């Protein structure tokens, strides 16, 4: 589990005009690096930012709408603790900016798909685009780092 750092800005905030947004924030130490997560809910998109050391180097989007009507009409499978972190098969992440190496590209798309799956599982009617801004100081294939980062993200969703 990441060591959570209290944040006073986890209160919802609204923008003026016709487009109110709600923002949730969390911060924690993951693998001895301060990691900040911001989730902002716009009318047309859900933007999630994961930043370490002030970095933001990669942008990925994942449409939550099913790629076909047959997929969106299928009931969600019941998830056990063993398969609860498996991403939904119809989600297709696309890197918009960044992902300079294959490892960064793969890691970014993994996080984007997991986050989009978590949002879709919590609300099967959700159809906004998920936009992920990712700024990891190191890209490493470490299960514990991945789970700790996802725990921090899930605390904002």
TrEMBL record:
Gene3D superfamilies per record: 3.30.230.90
Q: Which Pfam families match?
A: PAC3 (PF10178)
- Give GO BP annotations, semicolon-separated: proteasome assembly
**Which InterPro entries has this protein been placed in?**
Proteasome_assmbl_chp_3 (IPR018788), Psm_Assembly_Chaperone (IPR053720)
Query: Which residue stretches belong to region Disordered?
Result: 1-22
Report which superkingdom the organism of origin falls in: Eukaryota
Which PANTHER family does the protein's record reference?
Answer: PROTEASOME ASSEMBLY CHAPERONE 3
What's the name of the protein? Proteasome assembly chaperone 3
